[in-house]
């Protein structure tokens, strides 16, 4: 059996590929576990500055959870289904959302269910003009369980989010961009190029973990508490070489060098 996750590291960018193209990159338990392991591996690798996450093949980013596998857990009762399926999926999206290096989803096709929830959780997303999104869990008689009931309304607004969650209809990348689910749309054959270009625009600067942490935590707090997080993240950077270099470069009217903390 092929590995469900492919990992390639080049020029400071980690490319993670969901690799079950014959199953439309459905998120079975092994794939989720290996994705988490890949994130563990690259988080501590100083050479990796940004991450691109995409799907194998031409048809799907991910069509969602592996329903056949999930249904076996459901047959064993709520406790097993919550433990094996819900907690695993929520841990995955929480890990993506809180990851300290920027993660860019390159959505190359269907992003249904859990595939859409991954897109909601990552920091940035580019979709091909062939991408298609949906929240079809309602058709199975259930809500999204990988964070979709929480993140999508925060992105789209309560009413627009509820319409997508309750109707379950597919929506095109143009609507995904309108509601803030993705950043841009590009032709299919330019998707990875565009993702690498965006990653390059990010990695030319000093590490951005403080910014990601402040935004991710602050969105779920009252603004006064979020401002404290912002202050904490800045304070942690005050003694850093990157801040010293950035200030020196500004004074000397030259581009700043990325020197590391």
UniProtKB/TrEMBL annotation:
Entry-linked CDD domains: crotonase-like
GO terms (BP aspect): fatty acid beta-oxidation
Statement: the UniProt record of this protein carries the keyword Lyase: yes
Pfam families (UniProt xref): ECH_1
InterPro entries xref list: ClpP/crotonase-like_dom_sf, Enoyl-CoA_hydra/iso, Enoyl-CoA_hydra_C
Entry keyword set: Lyase
Segments passing through the bilayer: none
GO molecular function, one term: lyase activity
PANTHER family: ENOYL-COA HYDRATASE, MITOCHONDRIAL, ENOYL-COA HYDRATASE-RELATED
Family from the record: Belongs to the enoyl-CoA hydratase/isomerase family.
Protein name per Swiss-Prot or TrEMBL: Enoyl-CoA hydratase/carnithine racemase
Organism: Bradyrhizobium macuxiense
Taxonomy of the source species: Bacteria, Pseudomonadati, Pseudomonadota, Alphaproteobacteria, Hyphomicrobiales
